[in-house]
Every structure is written in C-alpha cells, then in structure tokens.
Amino acid sequence: MTDPTPAADMTYARYLDLDRLLAAQNPISDEHDEMLFVIIHQTKELWLKQILHEVALAQSLVRAGDLVPAYKSLARVSRIQAVMTQSWDILATMTPADYLRFRGVLGSSSGFQSDQFRRLETMLGLKDAKFLSFQLDRPEAHAALSEALAAPSLYDDALAQLAAAGIAVPAEALNRDVSQPYEPSEGVEAAWLEVYRDTERWWPFYQLAEKLVDLDDALLTWRHKHVVTVERIIGRRRGTGGTDGVAYLSSTLDRRCFPELWSLRTRL
Ligand code: HEM
C-alpha cells in the first residue's frame, strides 16, 4: 500500500495537478461558445475515465465470482452516466448560430473517434474492431482498445458465472471467439429466464442482471439525448466525422450490450 503520509509541500493545486489540467482548454477560434464545447467534451472524457476504472473493477469481481461487491461499482457507473446525460442540457444552451461560428475549426474531428467511449462499449460487450482505425496515431489508446477487443466482455464474464453456478448456458456462448461481436441466442435467454423465474434462488444473479440493465438503459438514454441535442444544433446536416449525422446516431439506439436481458422481458 502507498504511504498515506502527505508530502510536506502538498497543496490543493499540486495534488490535483491543476496547472496542467487548466492549461488544457485551448479553443482555436475567438468564439465565446467554443470554450463550453471543449469543456463539455473534456469532462465527458474524465467521466469516461472513471467509468472505465469502475467497470474494470466490477468485471474482475464478477470474473472471480464476487458478484455482490461488484454491485457497488456498477451503481456508481449508473450515477455518473446520469450526470453525463444531464450535461446535454448545458450544451443545448449553445444555439445553431453559436455553433456554426466555430464548427469549421473542428475539421473532421468527432466524438465518433473517442477511444474511451469505444473501450467502454467494448468492455460492456459491443465489439467492433473497425474503431481501431481511428487510433493509429495514438499507440496507447490503440493498445488499450485492442486489449479490450481481445478480452472477454463484462457480459461474457457474467455468462461464465451463470454456467459456474449450474445454470445451463450454451457451449457456443461460453466458448465463443470473444473478439467477435456477440450474437444473441435463445439458449442464453433461457438461462436468464431461469434467474428471473426464480429470483429468490438466484438473487445475486438477478441483482447483477438488473445492474447491467441499469447501465444499458443509461447508455441508451445518453445516446437518445445526444441525438436530440444534435438535431437541435445541426438539424439533418452531416457529421464532422463523416456519417450522415442524426440518421446514423438514431441507428445506434438499437445497440444493446446485454441483449437477452431485454428480450427475456417479453417471455416472462
Ligand atoms: C454540437 C454538439 C455536437 C454535435 C453536433 C455532435 C454530432 C455528432 C455526430 C453527427 C456524430 C456521428 C459521427 C459524425 O459523423 O461526426 C457524433 C458522434 C458522437 N458524439 Fe457527438 N456531437 C456533439 C457533441 C458531443 C458531445 C458533447 C459529446 C460527448 C460529451 C459527443 C460524443 C459523441 C460520441 C461518443 C459519438 C459516437 C457515437 C456512436 O458512434 O455511437 N458529442 N456526434
């Protein structure tokens, strides 16, 4: 454990590395609202950093079969997601006219290229190697995303725990190539149905499943608010990252990290 005795010259600013942190907001234009645009994106990257830290802990606990301690990290992630969703309302105070005054300086940069956002999606189970191509100029980000793509997702680990507890999980799901996108199956849905049909017996899994649904739900709520805010600010224009904008973002609302936890609700 690290020595908790503080350095004699420790100050608030040194502890938080404030001089470097506050030197990192560098709008390119002279437009007033560009500062907000930079800070909203930077705070989102900071929150993503904390979320990744929590998901990594939760995943190692689930993998070790310690389901109950994992709930704490997962609950914290949901609360952070709620704050991220709320922050769209701050950004929406920027009108289309305000944004168009500096949009040109963004070039082809876009949140689409956020390696931390892709790492989060990947760790939760949405695997897509095409996003590696946006990190070719950033070796550490590239390596971290590659590592997440090659590793089991949180969902893969949850399914392995279901099997270890004696619930029938199809071998194809347990032995799948974890670097590939997850394919939902009726067999996995049946495994979760067993949990939801006898919640008293399977309480720790039932709790885990609902915590996972909290995360998926909050991610969808964030995505939805992004689409609405984007339409409010740029209408149906194309995105700076090259997609067709709102139409592309709307299509991401179909993504589910834990698909059988949604589909089982129809069958209960
Ligand atoms: C004026 C404000 C914004 C506009 C007009 C906008 C627009 C877009 C568009 C059109 C895309 C699709 C990719 C592209 O063609 O560029 C996108 C993707 C994305 N944006 Fe934004 N965005 C805005 C603000 C933000 C903010 C504040 C965040 C984070 C806090 C963010 C995070 C993302 C992420 C993570 C993606 C990838 C989504 C996915 O592929 O699932 N965006 N944005």
UniProtKB/TrEMBL annotation:
Which EC class, in a word? oxidoreductase
How does the cofactor bind to this protein, according to its record?
Binds 1 heme group per subunit.
What Gene3D superfamilies does the database record attribute to this sequence?
1.20.58.480
Instruction: Reply yes or no: does the keyword Metal-binding apply.
Output: yes
- What's in the keyword line of the UniProt record? Dioxygenase, Heme, Iron, Metal-binding, Oxidoreductase, Tryptophan catabolism
GO BP: L-tryptophan catabolic process to acetyl-CoA; L-tryptophan catabolic process to kynurenine
On the tree of life, the source organism's domain of life is: Bacteria
What Pfam families does this protein's entry cite? Answer: Trp_dioxygenase
Q: Which family does it belong to?
A: Belongs to the tryptophan 2,3-dioxygenase family.
Q: Would you tell me the protein name for this molecule?
A: Tryptophan 2,3-dioxygenase
Q: Tell me which species this is from.
A: Brevundimonas subvibrioides
- Top-level taxonomy: Bacteria, Pseudomonadati, Pseudomonadota, Alphaproteobacteria, Caulobacterales
